Q: What sequence folds into this?
């Protein structure tokens, strides 16, 4: 089954215009020949106390 095209070759897009589209990011990326992979990253750690860290983790977790 052929998918309906999301993007028009005759139109120029800005980063904002991609965000305003009613499509999921993986659908837009697929049309551009890319794929989206969501996963947790292991980043460098700090011993510093970070205020509101738990709140930030919850916010990030809701979007994943």
A:
């Amino acid at each position: 089954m052929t998918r309906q095209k999301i993007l028009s070759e005759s139109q120029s897009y800005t980063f904002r215009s991609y965000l305003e589209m009613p499509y999921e990011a993986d659908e837009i990326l697929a049309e551009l020949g890319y794929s989206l992979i969501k996963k947790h990253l292991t980043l460098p750690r700090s011993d510093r106390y970070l205020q509101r860290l738990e709140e930030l983790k919850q916010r990030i977790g809701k979007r994943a």
Helices lie at 15-19, 25-31, 53-63. The chain has a mean pLDDT of 90. The two ends are 29 Å apart (CA to CA).
